[in-house]
Amino acid sequence: MNTKLLIEFRERKKYSQEQMAKMLGYKNKASYCLIECGKTKVHIDLANKISEILELNQEEILALFFNI
Q1: pLDDT surpasses 80 at 68
Q2: What does the pLDDT look like over 15-66, one tens digit per residue?
Q3: Domain 3-66's class?
Q4: Contact by Cβ (8 Å): 1, 64
Q5: 28 by DSSP, 3-state: which?
Q6: What letters, b where the CB count within 10 A reaches 16 and e where it falls short, cover 21-58?
Q7: So where are the chain's domains?
Q8: How far is 68 from 13, CA to CA, in rounded Å?
């Protein structure tokens, strides 16, 4: 996963890490921060949720999760 792109896409939507954490169902931003730091693996359900929240198109999804 391209964590730099994840941060860029989140900032483009003007969401804070705390907002992303809440929308993903985490209790606090610490768990979400681990995703942005690349320390947590992102399973398909989580990838889908992130893609929906950030309103990513197919090209952006491929670049974010598959480095294409």
Answers
A1: no
A2: 999 999 999 999 999 999 999 999 999 999 999 999 999 999 999 999 999 9
A3: mainly alpha
A4: yes
A5: coil
A6: beeeebeebeebbebbeeeeebeeeebeebbebbebee
A7: 3-66
A8: 22
